[in-house]
Amino acid sequence: MSTTTRPHRSAVTTPIAVAARAVVAAVPAVAVTFGLDHSAPGRFGLGVLGGFLLLQGVVLAVCVTGLAWSRAGRAMVLARAAVSLVGGVVALTGIAAGGGLLSPVEAVVFLLVGALEIIGGLLRSERAELSGDAVVVGGLQVLVGVVLAVLHSDPLLAVGVLGAWGAVVAVYLGISAANLRRRSGRA
User: How far is CA 80 from the centre of its chain?
Assistant: First the structure.
């Protein structure tokens, strides 16, 4: 009897958790697209990155049970939340340092969070219905990290890549949340 209630409860919380991640990913896309002052792309980018990472860390921590059932899965999600929170604090406190800090911080955080998400998806430590999403989103994060590690000198590129990544991931996770919600409605 407990096995029938547990999946039903997760079907309700999982779409909400994925939708929350989609909204968070849309934040840098909207901020970069509609930001008025790009005269100092490094400082602007650090502000956007820092705000996004703090928000992502909070959402991951709050939605942990909607994203993972097992203890190992929750630990992976909480590790991603912790890396995001630390990266957000570093980015926001580094705004005074200027643009030189943007690419390295973005690259390191995206590489770490992306790798943790890929590992969680491959090991199925996240919810089974989210394993594929974890590999895709984590892969895109690792790709951003690699691009920025190789081309680390241009803060304008780092800001643009952050916005583009946010737009793609927001749409991807939004579609995933809608599909999960539709499927849970049939259950």
Answer: 9
